């Protein structure tokens, strides 16, 4: 399959993102708020068992929330 065939085939099916541009700020701020709460809880209850329960979700929420907020304010990564 050549690049031109792929280009022509993709012309009929536009890309629709999972989270629209209008909702990125809401999703980003919600994820950052969740990350802030989970980080606070993890800081109060530090133990080895809380790493997968609070630490990992907090870091994932912060990572995705930061990217959504960067995209929501117009800085594209």
From TrEMBL:
The chain crosses the membrane at residues 25-44, 51-76. InterPro entries: TMEM258/Ost5 (IPR007915). It comes from the Eukaryota. The keyword Magnesium does not apply. It is found in: Membrane. Keywords: Membrane, Transmembrane, Transmembrane helix. GO terms for cellular component: oligosaccharyltransferase complex. The keyword Cell wall biogenesis/degradation does not apply. It is a multi-pass membrane protein. Signal peptide: none annotated. GO terms for biological process: protein N-linked glycosylation. It holds the Pfam family Ost5. Belongs to the OST5 family. Subunit of the oligosaccharyl transferase (OST) complex that catalyzes the initial transfer of a defined glycan (Glc(3)Man(9)GlcNAc(2) in eukaryotes) from the lipid carrier dolichol-pyrophosphate to an asparagine residue within an Asn-X-Ser/Thr consensus motif in nascent polypeptide chains, the first step in protein N-glycosylation. N-glycosylation occurs cotranslationally and the complex associates with the Sec61 complex at the channel-forming translocon complex that mediates protein translocation across the endoplasmic reticulum (ER). All subunits are required for a maximal enzyme activity. Component of the oligosaccharyltransferase (OST) complex. This is Dolichyl-diphosphooligosaccharide-protein glycosyltransferase subunit OST5. The lineage of its organism: Eukaryota, Fungi, Dikarya, Ascomycota, Pezizomycotina.
